[in-house]
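Supplementary notes for students who missed Thursday's class. We covered one full example, reproduced here. Read the sequence, then the structure, then the short commentary at the end.
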Amino acid sequence: MSSGEIVKFSSGLIQLIYKQGGDLALPGDEILSLECVVAGTTFIKNLNEIELKLEKGQTLDLVREADNKYDSFAIAIYNSNGEKLGYIPRNKNEMLARLMDAGKWFYAKIQDKVWEGSWLKIDLEIYLKE
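Structure (token representation):
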């Protein structure tokens, strides 16, 4: 490659390198990687009890379930008490799953929660921790 040559980068790679404000992401930085809702909350048996413990800004753990029989890219979401809340939606989990499989560490923060009928809608921001 000669100087002045144009090199193409994917937008996803650029987002991993730079923070939202445009500053270069340094080791130890948190990088917002995805915004989504928790999928599968209607399948959680004691959801009413768990919901009372959830607060805006709370950090949640993400756990890869590579052996999940329904989705090989499944990523489960747990609170600090080890209670499963659901999953990263299937249509948004592949890139995160591949990065987690490569050793990257992600976590979630609750942005909002609201009951919509019998469904607990939990809005998340997913962060990469460098």
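Commentary. The mean pLDDT is 86. The chain has one domain: 26-129. If anything here is unclear, bring it to office hours.
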